[in-house]
Each structure stands twice: as structure tokens, then as C-alpha cells.
Specification:
Helix 1 runs antiparallel to helix 2. The protein is mostly helical.
Length: 147
Amino acid sequence: MSFQFSLQKILEIREDDKIKAEKEFTQATKQFEDVATKLFEQLKKKEQYENEYYKRIETGIHIFEIQHSHTLLNQMQLQIDRQQNFTQKARDNMNRKQEVLVVKSIEQKKYEKMKQIKREKYIEETKHQENLLMDEISVQQFMRKLN
């Protein structure tokens, strides 16, 4: 008779839940990285434009170009603000998915530990039963020799 864990189905469900949580966390992480990369690129683009703008101011430019540059910088800042909002939402989502993954992992570990403990008890009980059987056989052999 082999070892059978009575809660095997629940353990399998917990493993599936953990795998699903891992996939969702991985997807949320990728989404965060994509949004954060876009934010970084927008910040970099704004910084480059500002550097060029200040260089042009030093050389002297028309008031019209200054007004146009301010309008452009304001639009860039609005896009950056919006992108920062998206990035924060993606970060929050990623953190929630990570918390779910941690909970699912802990639940799976609990059932794995229960299975390990029950298996060890089963092995111990099997050895005990074998020892009892060997003792009984030895006693019977001894009694036969006496008769």
C-alpha cells in the first residue's frame, strides 16, 4: 500500500492558484516596466529639449520662439504628469499582485508541509508495523523450535 495524501486535490488547487498568481505578477511587472520606460523617455526628451532651449536663449532668439518653446514644454509636462499617474497605477497594481502571490505561496507551502509530515508519519508507522510483524514471526519460530 502506497502513501496517499488525503488533501492532494486541495494541494493541486493551491499550486494552480500560485502559478496563476505568478503569471499575473509577471504580467503586472512587465506592464509597469513598459509604462515606466515610457515615462523615462518622456523625461529624457523634455530634458534634452530644455538644454537646447537654454542654449538657444544664450545665443538670442525671437520672443515668438520663446513663447512656442514654453507652450511645448507645458505640453510635455502635462504628458509627463499623465504618464506619472499611469506609472503609479501600474506600480500599485504590481504591488497588489505581489501581495497575492506571497499569500498563495504561503498557502501552498502549508499544504506541502502537511503532506511531508503525513508522509513521514506514514513511513514511521509502516516501519513500526514491519517490526511488529518481524517480532511475531520470530516468536512463532522460537515456539516451533521448542515444540
